[in-house]
Structures are given as C-alpha cells and as structure tokens.
Design brief:
The structure is a single chain. By secondary structure, the chain is mainly α. The radius of gyration is 17 Å and the shape is elongated. The protein has helices spanning about 30-40, 40-55, 80-90, 95-110, 115-125, 130-140, 145-160. It contains seven helices and no strands. The chain folds into two domains: about 10-110, no CATH class; about 115-160.
Length: about 160
C-alpha cells in the first residue's frame, strides 16, 4: 500500500499533508503558512518529526541533506542522496511513502484537507458540479493546485 494521493510539496502548492516532505523550517518559505494553518510552531513541527524519526526507519539517512529521511522530499522529486540511502537500507518507495503518510497523519491528523471541501471550492469557483470537481481532483491525484490550473485552462478554452 503506497500513498496514492500524496500531495505536492508545500513549496509547490500542495496541501498541508505535504509537511511530511518538508525540510526543517530554517528560512522563510511556504512551510510557515502551512504550519500556521495546522496550528504548529516551527519547534513543535521539528519535535514531531524528530520523534517520528526515532520511532521509525525514517530516522536513518545520515548521508541526506538534514541527516534523516524524515526531512526528505517526495520520490517524484529527483534526489540522489535520498535514493542512495533508500537503496542502501533496502527501503522501497512504497514503504517510504507509507511512512511519510503516517508522518503526515501525525502532523496534521488523518484527514488533512478533505476532498469534499476541495471539490466544493472548485465547484463554486469554476461553476461546475461537485461531481465534475471530484472527477477533476481524482484525475489530478487530489492535487488541488493542478486541478485549479486544469480548470483555468479549460475555462479559457471554452471562452474562445
């Protein structure tokens, strides 16, 4: 079981579950807004991730940027340090994503942003049915940002 609807990275507009793929909050970036949205201070975020690292295999990875897989990004983003570490410890991308999903749940709760809320917002914004909005979200792997882009393009094409 892999994380089929893993969000985009926070810095690419993903929902708050993407905090599982973020670096430590060491500079101003979109992570600060995501932390505010879920009600965590930067220190609480660091503490949750460090605790998760100590309890799971995501704590391994001394050769990665921040010394642990807990801080590493999504497998769809190329990273030789993360991938070498995963290979060396015989961890598949599926296992990695399963652990990252558990981490996201520890950070933001099981639900994160609900598909229903996102579909409602898309439906209202683009004057489409909720069913159509759910289909677009599904086609975009529940990536709200991508769904918005797709619907903007579609609405521009229809206005010509």
């Amino acid at each position: 079981m892999a994380w089929d609807d893993a969000p985009s990275h926070i810095c690419r507009g993903g929902d708050v579950r993407g905090l599982a793929f973020c670096c430590p909050p060491v500079k101003p970036c979109p992570i600060m807004y995501a932390l505010e949205e879920v009600g965590l201070t930067p220190q609480e975020y660091i503490d949750i991730k460090n605790k998760f690292a100590n309890e799971t295999r995501l704590g391994e990875g001394t050769g990665t940027c921040f010394g642990s897989l807990v801080w590493c990004c999504k497998p769809s983003k190329p990273c030789p340090l993360r991938d070498m570490t995963l290979r060396n410890m015989n961890m598949t991308h599926d296992e990695y994503l399963d652990l990252k999903k558990q981490l996201a749940e520890a950070l933001v709760g099981v639900e994160g942003e609900s598909k229903d809320d996102n579909a409602k917002a898309l439906s209202e914004t683009f004057s489409i049915t909720k069913t159509e909005a759910l289909k677009v979200l599904e086609d975009c792997n529940n990536d709200l940002r991508l769904a918005v882009k797709l619907l903007k393009v579609k609405s521009l094409e229809e206005s010509d």
